[in-house]
Each structure stands twice: as structure tokens, then as C-alpha cells.
Design a protein that fits this description.
Blueprint lengths: L1 E4 L9 H10 L5 E6 L11 H7 L7 E6 L7 H7 L3 E5 L6 H10 L3 E6 L17 E5 L15 H14 L4 E5 L7 H7 L3 E4 L1 H4 L4 H9 L3
Parallel strand pairs: 1-8, 2-3, 3-4, 4-5, 5-6, 6-7, 7-8
Length: about 220
């Protein structure tokens, strides 16, 4: 299991140091939640902040755009150092054009689905993606409880990929910790975003290792 600590749970005043701490603790990716206050009812940070903290690690930057018009900002996040850009199928932008723009910058493209969106919403785009992110909480705020009833969507996406011979990663985000990660793994999740479970742990390295050991 790959573990991507969510910077939404870090101390924003020390974001660079927090990234370095997660890197040393063994994190696989860094998950950066970008929220615009419109698509979701919260505002976090944008491309300039990501650019400033990019130098603190060589680990992949997994940038999750919770914004209404992601197509407009792809170049900004590419220039800031994103390795993976995921955006919501529910957004206002043209989905195919946004995927194509991300890939034109040499970045892996992923689609995200909210809890109320069916798995089938991403099926038309699977052959163009590197990743599908299934939200296991309502997007917008950290520290929410894991929604196990989202996991059948993971299984449905995995079955469809296998049926069509498509290889991609499935990521889960929201409420992931030692008590919930096995359920995600059993459903077919490859990458788990973990926030408070790692940032608030007494020993981040032990917490990350315990999550990574799940299969």
C-alpha cells in the first residue's frame, strides 16, 4: 500500500518542514489539497505555495484540485512541480480537455469522484488516466469519519479496468487510519491518503509503516 500524507493536516506555518518530516518517515507521495472556496466550502492554498515547498522532497507531489475550473490552472500547477494532478469529474471544465492538458505537460492525470457520484462516471475516461481517486469523505475538510459504503465503487472501477485490460492506480482519501485501511485494501485500493493518522501520530514513521504493511 502506498501512503500519501495529506498536507491538509499539517502545520501550515511549517509546511516545508512537515513535508520533510513525512519524507523521512517513509511516505510514498505527498498529497496536496487545493480548494477554491467555490467547488468546496473551504480555501487552502494554491500553486505559489506548492512551488515554494517543492524543494523540500523528491517524493511525488499528488495535487488534488477541488476547484471549479481546473483546466484554467493546469499550467500553474505543472510549473509549480506537480507530478500527479487529480481533478473532479463533477467540475465545470471539459473533462477530456483537462486530462489532455495535464498529460501534455508530462504529468499523470487522475479523476476524482465525490461520495454521491457513481463509479460509472469515470468509466468513459479510464483508458486516459493513471489514477482514479474515490473520496471516502465529503471533500472540503480534514478529520472526517471514513465512509465504508464508498468501497463498492473501488471494486466496480477495478472490475471495469480488468475487463478492459486497463492498468491504473485507485486511491482513497478520507478517514484512513489503522482501523480503516484494511477495508480499503480489501476493496482494491492501491494508494491511501492519510492525514491526522500520520501527522498527529506520536511516531510518524511507525504510523506510516503500519499503514504500508497492509495488503
Amino acid at each position: 500500500m502506498k501512503i500519501a500524507p495529506s498536507l491538509l493536516s499539517c502545520d501550515f506555518s511549517k509546511m516545508g518542514e512537515e513535508i520533510r518530516r513525512m519524507d523521512k518517515a517513509g511516505a510514498d507521495w505527498m498529497h496536496l489539497d487545493v480548494m477554491d472556496g467555490h467547488f468546496v466550502p473551504n480555501i487552502t492554498f494554491g500553486a505559489p505555495v506548492i512551488k515554494w515547498v517543492r524543494s523540500y522532497t523528491d517524493k511525488p507531489f499528488d495535487v488534488h484540485l477541488m476547484i471549479s475550473d481546473p483546466l484554467r490552472y493546469i499550467d500553474d500547477f505543472a510549473d509549480a512541480g506537480a507530478d500527479i494532478i487529480t481533478f473532479h469529474v463533477e467540475c465545470d471544465a471539459d473533462i477530456d480537455a483537462t486530462i489532455d492538458k495535464i498529460k501534455s505537460r508530462g504529468i499523470q492525470a487522475g479523476l476524482v469522484i465525490k461520495p454521491n457520484t457513481p463509479a460509472e462516471a469515470v468509466f468513459p475516461y479510464l483508458d486516459k488516466l493513471s489514477l482514479v481517486l474515490v473520496m471516502t469523505v465529503e471533500p472540503g475538510f480534514g478529520g472526517q469519519s471514513f465512509m465504508a459504503d464508498m468501497l463498492p465503487k473501488v471494486s466496480a472501477i477495478r472490475r471495469e479496468c480488468e475487463r478492459r485490460g486497463i492498468s491504473l492506480l485507485i486511491e482513497a482519501d478520507g478517514g484512513i487510519g489503522e482501523g480503516t485501511i484494511q477495508q480499503a485494501a480489501d476493496a482494491g485500493v492501491d494508494v491511501c491518503v492519510a492525514g491526522t493518522a500520520v501527522f498527529k501520530a506520536p511516531d510518524a514513521a511507525k504510523a506510516i509503516a503500519a499503514l504500508q504493511a497492509v495488503h
